[in-house]
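Give me structure tokens for this 270-residue protein.
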Amino acid sequence: MQVQNIVVAGKSGAGKQPRIDVLLQLYGLAQLSTGNIFREYLGAYGKVREGVPARVLEALWRDGRLAPDADLQIALSAPARAAGVGLPAAVLGFKAAQYVDRGKFVPDPITNELLAAAFRAAGGKGLVLDGYPRTPEQSDFLIGLAKECGTRLDLVLVVDNEDEAIVRRTVGRRICSSKACGKVFHLEHKPPRADGTCTACGAEVIQRSDDTEEKIRTRLQEFRDKAQPAIERLVAAGIPRAEVPGNLPVFTDEAVRESVLAAIRPVLGG
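Here you go.
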């Protein structure tokens, strides 16, 4: 079977990346991660943020609601120009930051726009979708987008893990700060170098701003409320589902590979 696209789903911190790596190698796919896309925009806004007075920021996000786009553009225009950041990136980064900084999912219209652009740019195939869809409405959008591009979704691979194991894993997670590398570490199970640098490229290893216990517990609840129904919506549309454990008795590259193969063979063959 010629695999076109696979959706990898699971709670934040469940252990999706090692399973995604297996799929990338096995089928020659590319990873399309909404997390990476959002971090790019959050980084753009981060360069602008210090140039915006606190009172202005408060006016742009009041009572859990964003100000109209026209107001955002006016408020962020000069700071974005001073920081050398494009205004569209600054505005979108601001919108995403209001939700990410509070441990919330970014609303569907913003997420769908970014995902669709990247999906179309890749020709709509050869992708492992990571972090999307996360709501039933996003599932509907993705199904329609695949049809529009004349491609298909071959599988939903769900990485399962317990909440407490996810909290321990996430709080200890560290990420290589180099965009060209992005290697993932864990302080206990897969530590970086003793000086806090990446074993692959030597760049500084950092903790993501959303990898705190409070924010991960918020995301776990969001998964139950929204992402689980999103998976069910894909399955209801006829997309096969397979499940792989996030915790293994022995965590090695080979053990991860074998667990993934055991889960997907009945669906994809091979």
